Amino acid sequence: MRWLRAGPRYNLYFNPKEVKALIVTCGGLVPGINVVIRELVMTLHYNYGVEEIYAAKFGFKGIYDEEWIKLKPDEVKTIHHHGGTYIGTSRGGFDVK
């Protein structure tokens, strides 16, 4: 059996300087979600060089209402010590049409 090493890839399809990432959480609150948000921001920024990382406040509702906040490593470096979710979450809030 052979395992692939995790982490940044040597060949990337997109230019990280041109990428704009949006993090969306949907459904109910889940333990460890702040850790996931933090690590996404840290990995995108430090490992890949993505400079524009955003979060949609309160799930899909934040996409439609355009409630986006810019996430920076300095702002999220300690969110894993807090309960709840840093960016909020919701069930529903989207229009299928």
What's the rounded overall pLDDT mean? 85
What global shape is seen?
globular
Say how many strands there are: 3
Instruction: Assign the structural class, choosing from mainly alpha, mainly beta, alpha/beta, alpha+beta, or little secondary structure.
Output: alpha+beta
Strand content: 5-15%
Straight-line N-to-C gap: 46 Å
Structure overview:
The protein is α+β, with helices and mostly antiparallel strands and 97 residues long. It has a domain at 18-81. Helices cover 25% and strands 12% of the residues. The protein is built from 3 helices and 3 strands, in the order βαβαβα. Helix 1 (33-47) links the parallel strand 1 and strand 2 (52-56). The longest helix is centred in the middle third of the chain and has 15 residues, at 33-47. It starts with 19 loop residues before the first strand and ends in a 21-residue tail after the last helix.
Descriptive keywords:
3 helices; 25% helix; globular
Summarize the topology.
Elements: E1 20-23, H1 33-47, E2 52-56, H2 60-64, E3 68-70, H3 73-76
Parallel strand pairs: 1-2
Antiparallel strand pairs: 2-3
In short:
By secondary structure, the protein is α+β, with helices and mostly antiparallel strands. It is 25% helix and 12% strand.
